[in-house]
Specification:
heterodimer, A: 326 residues, alpha/beta, Rossmann fold, Alpha-Beta Plaits, six-stranded mixed sheet, 12 helices, 14 strands, 27% strand, elongated, B: 275 residues, mainly alpha, 76% helix, 0% strand, binds adenosine-5'-diphosphate, binds magnesium ion, ATP binding (chain A), antibiotic resistance (chain A), transport (chain A)
Chain lengths: 326, 275
């Protein structure tokens, strides 16, 4: 396997706050890598380090053979970055923004214009290309920002939460653009808060929480671990949580459900929906009444509950875990 | 490129040759970004109006409102005021550098530039060069209006041109202050406020608007140590005649002094944000 991006042991601290605590990634050439995590997990920090905008306190980054810390200019020559927030000049038109990037990448004025027009057409911005970006909708902004990072035909593309805040239509459009770029051979790293998005786009997914990698694998593997559906049950009387947990564990064949003790809520990945009726019967027999019981698609919270046994962002590392992560 | 592609085990990686950006390329990138800032100036009516209105307003208000009171008649006040206003409006215009840089940083445009293989200095050079155009526009507007009102150069065109050059050099020196403010301000709106707190005592506490001899002792003392006073003396000397050598030398000394102190501070503040 041919690794295109390799990051090892990335650590980034902001004062007492550790944003990244030893993140490592290996991304095969031409693949789409998802980085999944809740707000504050360290996704943006990771992307900014890989894009040479931020220096880690510890760790190494190689992008296509170039050391991002020692030789950032070479890395900048092969990457494109679409940050979490649009980074285009609001006062300039879409075309002017793209042309400016083209000129900075040493295209002639004419070449820059042609390339800009090409991208505007490809991203269906059409006439809007000649309007100032400040008149654009959220989806259009995202696309012109993405276009700006593609002017130099980068071999590696970073997308930081490219669909957050987009309506479903714009999101689908962006997904198909990402697929198209991948088909052309671009190596893509994209961060997201949605398992569904990672599932749609990524070949492999790294789940991070609190600056640490908590799971890694193909989306299918992760989904199998998480279940295609998630079962939620909450006993009315918190004193019944223990007994409910035992019943559920038994029905799941030994797999322990995640417990959110704050809310008295149990949840478990479920492959076979028939389990629900079995559970209802058992709870009835045990005289446990519930005020919440049902099946749903796994939310990111469920993913984290299952993968880490804790709520997202609530991980309290034990001494043993701390020791083993270094 | 293909020579360095095998990157499988990190142990075997030969470091590829490190790319550096030469001065010629850096200058070209700086010019491209300067042309963007200039386009911005032309495009955004409010910033152009600022640049044009300021000199017009200052000239009209001071000449016609206060001219008679300060100098007896507005015509003779016009003569002494114009060289002083040249220095003053350049100081105001220098705020633009800090505004432009801070706007780019807070809008994320800076991150776009930093993710491209361009010289780190390019955004700074672009902002500063963009500002030079603002100085030239503001000075031109001021002088055209002044000529229309009856202002006359009493030396020769070459000296007058030297005066303008001195003013632009002064403005470029002040850019460093503007850069520092642009780097520390929390947002673009905060830049003019901070800059004015520095600029107002330097402009009004000088010989631009009134003769120092008419001021109370403490203020006259301040005017005497204010470098702006010597710039104004130099520009007046070059445009109206009178002693020029000493004020020009003091002015150039002040420029050198400001450069030595502010430039390293400004570059450090800037590089911290663009690394
Ligand atoms: N410039 C900064 N100063 C201080 N803390 C920061 C800074 N940037 C990020 N952080 C902190 O680092 C952690 C990770 O942030 P970030 O990478 O932005 O997360 P994500 O993109 O996954 O939401 C958060 O706790 C955040 O508050
Ligand atoms: Mg983020």
């Amino acid at each position: 396997m041919n690794t295109c991006i390799r990051a090892e042991g990335l650590v980034k601290r902001y004062g007492a706050n550790t944003a990244l605590d030893g993140v490592s990634l290996g991304i095969p050439r031409g693949s789409i890598q998802g980085v999944l995590g809740p707000n504050g997990a360290g996704k943006t920090t990771t992307v900014r380090i890989l894009a040479t905008l931020l220096r880690p306190d510890e760790g190494t980054v190689l992008v296509d053979g170039h050391d991002a810390l020692r030789d950032p200019v070479s890395v900048r020559g092969i990457i494109g970055l679409t940050g979490q927030y649009a980074s285009v000049d609001e006062e300039l038109t879409g075309m002017e923004n793209l042309e400016l990037v083209g000129r900075l990448l040493d295209l002639s004025g004419r070449q820059a214009r042609v390339r800009a027009r090409e991208l505007v057409e490809r991203f269906e911005l059409g006439d809007a290309g000649d309007r100032p970006v400040k008149t654009y909708s959220g989806g259009m902004r995202r696309r012109i920002d993405l276009a700006a990072s593609l002017v130099g035909r980068p071999r590696v593309l970073y997308l930081d939460e490219p669909t957050t805040g987009l309506d479903p239509h714009s999101r689908n459009r962006l997904w198909s653009i990402v697929h198209g770029l991948s088909d052309e051979g671009t190596t893509i790293l994209l961060t997201t808060q949605y398992l569904e998005e990672a599932d749609q786009l990524a070949d492999r997914v790294t789940v991070i929480d609190q600056g640490r990698v908590v799971a890694e694998g193909a989306p299918k593997e992760l989904k199998q671990r998480v279940g295609s559906q998630t079962l939620h049950v909450r006993p009315v009387d918190p004193a019944d949580v223990r007994r409910t947990e035992e019943i559920l564990t038994e029905l799941l064949g030994g797999v322990r459900p995640g417990v959110d003790s704050e809310r008295g809520l149990l949840s478990a990945p479920v492959q076979d929906p028939v389990l629900l009726s079995a559970l209802v019967r058992r709870l009835h027999d045990a005289a446990i009444s519930t005020d919440e019981l049902g099946l749903g698609l796994p939310s990111l919270d469920d993913v984290f509950l299952t993968l880490t046994g804790q709520k997202a962002g609530k991980t309290e590392p034990t001494a043993a875990e701390k020791g083993s992560s270094t | 490129m293909s020579a360095t592609v095998a990157v499988d085990s990190h142990a075997s990686v030969e470091p590829s040759p490190r790319i550096r950006i030469g001065p010629a390329t850096a200058a070209r990138h700086g010019m491209i970004l300067a042309s963007r800032n200039i386009r911005y100036l032309v495009r955004t009516p409010s910033s152009l109006i600022d640049t044009v209105i300021q000199p017009v307003l200052f000239l009209l208000v001071f000449v016609f409102l206060f001219g008679g009171a300060i100098a007896g008649d507005w015509q003779s006040y016009l003569q002494t005021l114009v060289p002083g206003l040249m220095v003053q409006i350049t100081m105001y215009a220098s705020i633009g550098t800090g505004m432009a840089l801070n706007t780019d940083i807070s809008k994320g445009v800076f991150d776009r530039f930093r993710s491209l293989p361009i010289a780190r200095s390019a955004p700074l050079v672009g902002a500063v060069l963009g500002d030079v155009l603002r100085y030239v526009v503001a000075l031109t507007v001021l002088l055209l209006l002044a000529f229309a009102l009856g202002f006359r150069i009493q030396t020769d065109p070459l000296s007058a041109l030297l005066a303008c050059a001195l003013v632009v050099v002064f403005g470029l020196t002040l850019c460093w202050m503007s850069v520092i403010i642009g780097m520390v301000a929390t947002g673009p709106q905060a830049v003019p406020g901070i800059a004015m707190a520095v600029i107002l005592p330097l402009t009004f506490g000088s010989n631009i608007f009134a003769a120092p001899e008419t001021m109370p002792g403490w203020l006259e003392a301040w005017v005497g140590i204010n470098p702006v006073t010597y710039f104004v003396d130099a520009v007046r000397g070059l445009m109206l005649g009178g002693p020029t050598l000493v004020p020009v030398l003091i002015s150039l000394g002040a420029v050198a002094g400001i450069q030595i102190v502010l430039m390293p501070l400004a570059l450090r503040a800037y590089l911290r944000r663009v690394r």
